[in-house]
Amino acid sequence: MEVGRPSSFEVKLNDELLFSKYETTGFPIVDEILEQVEKAVKGEEVAKVTTSAPPVDMGNFFIILIAIALYLYGKPLIQLVQSLFS
Q1: Residue 53: its pLDDT value, please?
Q2: Membrane-crossing residues (predicted)?
Q3: CB-based contact 33:10 (threshold 8 Å)
Q4: Quick check: 2 pLDDT over 70?
Q5: What sign for the dihedral angle of Cα 20, 25, 27, 30?
Q6: Does the pLDDT value for residue 52 go beyond 60?
Q7: 3-state per-residue secondary structure call for the chain
């Protein structure tokens, strides 16, 4: 294991760089990494993965989840709370 830059990482296969979060500024797409690993197992030529998924801001993610929950279940929740106090 090698220590790299903070908050970035690299995926290597047989000492060859397969993916770099630093270069792509995102997270690897797992299916693309697995596709290259399968090629290596079969003895085929492996290509560096240069596409990535954008990083997820967990703060925004939870706000979105709360907003969706309130949209879907807000009225029943308000009615439940009101019934508890009436």
Answers
A1: 85
A2: 58-74
A3: no
A4: no
A5: negative
A6: yes
A7: CCCCCCCCCEEEECCEEEEEHHHHCCECCHHHHHHHHHHHHHCCCCCCCCCCECCCCHHHHHHHHHHHHHHHHHHHHHHHHHHHCC
